[in-house]
Amino acid sequence: MADGTLNAGELNIPTKKRSGSDDQYDGAAAKKHQLHKSSPHPEDPAAALANSRHEFGEHGGVNMSIEASATFTVMEPDTLRRMFAGELGPDRDFFIYSRHFNPTVLNVGRLMAALEGTEAAYCTASGMSAIASVLLQLCSSGGHMVASRRLYGGTHALLTHFLPRACNITTSFVDIRDHEKVKMAIVEGKTKVLYFETMSNPVLTVANVPELCRIAHDKGVTVVVDNTFAPMVVSPARLGADVVVHSVSKYISGGADIIAGAICGPARLVNSMMDLHHGTLMLLGPTMNPKVAFELSERLPHLGLRMKEHCNRALVFATRMKKLGLKMIYPGLEDHPDHAVLKSIANSDYGYGGILGVDMETEEKANKLMTLLQNCTQFGFMAVSLGYYETLMSCSGSSTSSELNEEEKALAGISPGLIRMSIGYNGTMEQKWSQFEKALARMQEPNLLLKV
């Protein structure tokens, strides 16, 4: 649609495609719209999800149907013209093509918008496609962004290498904790975006979202926040952020079997991204498969329960590991420099996140411990990603942050021996803790590598 038709109300539309013309949109259908309007999103993200309308299946099933069609029929030739002109759209159950809007994917977008408390959301094929699409929509050639120097390696590479080379978009990296430096880095009239992660990957710096939003908005800058590490724990849009992006592959999926992303923000932005002539989502085509969207719709309802257990175990393990003398990075610990900030912005009862860092100082020691934890005691798996029900471990400097050079890693605080642990909830807590203790004890054995 040339001008886009998605709006806040559309987050609650019925999604079965109508087969007639718009004249057949009668009073009964209009009443259905009204019956399924959601009330304003409550502050608690789980309550917001539950408050959004449940989409029933085509034949009354408790689960919504999968609309697997790539293209959609119309009953009258003029309807197609009106759809492409932007006169008819998904708000009236008119769909053109699934790269533009698909009913099943649209429903998951409605759930993501409820989760983050935004007007609208659009789900994509990956987290990186969500990040790239929204930044390219907000920044044109010659544009400038300010970003945290503590970012996921893939995002850092996008901002450092790809965007300057391919799009003439530059980024200034700053310590997101130093608000004066953030202010100084913003060039009024040129800087378009302030970008940071709620909890940075992998060193778990917590952003003061309300204060950073105030700084950016005072200078007319759009705030984009990656909330992949903290769904449910923090709600950036409710704290002032303009756009929230996710790698849905992580906690929201929870099964390490789906690659997906999401962009949550104003309806006006999502509309612009779906514009037929200028929209990054429409023209670059990072389309989510409707079968993936259906899978996600089945997992979002228990995200809150999963996050609480991830976070509970992470806090217990971090506390115990610290007592054993390990160098810990976890914002739930009172000696973490951002503990007070996180307490002030976190949603009640969801904890402090499910990721912790164990700094073994050298890569050799980190690799020894991870080898023991996986191959000898079955505490977890050596694998990248996070949010899985099993604990996942990786040495960040040589894996998920390997895109950064040595100077950039040092500035970001990434030690060569930093193990990023995504704490799972499989097995009992005491069973898993016993496995960790046994691995740590074996670290002291002579000729360890010969026995592993």
TrEMBL record:
Checking InterPro entries in the record gives: Cys/Met-Metab_PyrdxlP-dep_enz, PyrdxlP-dep_Trfase, PyrdxlP-dep_Trfase_major, PyrdxlP-dep_Trfase_small
Coiled coil regions, renumbered to chain: none
Specify residue ranges for compositional bias: Basic residues: 30-39
Q: Keywords of this protein's UniProt record, alphabetized? A: Lyase, Pyridoxal phosphate
Query: What Gene Ontology terms for biological process does this UniProt record contain?
Result: transsulfuration
The N6-(pyridoxal phosphate)lysine modification is found at K250
* SUPFAM superfamilies reported in the protein's UniProt record: PLP-dependent transferases
A Gene Ontology cellular component where this protein is annotated is: cytoplasm
Pfam families in alphabetical order: Cys_Met_Meta_PP
What EC number(s) would the UniProt record show?
Answer: 4.4.1.11
| Location of region: Disordered | 1-48
- A GO term for molecular function: pyridoxal phosphate binding
The EC category is lyase
Cofactor(s) annotated in UniProt? pyridoxal 5'-phosphate
Family, according to the entry, reads as follows: Belongs to the trans-sulfuration enzymes family.
Q: What is this protein called?
A: Cystathionine beta-lyase/cystathionine gamma-synthase
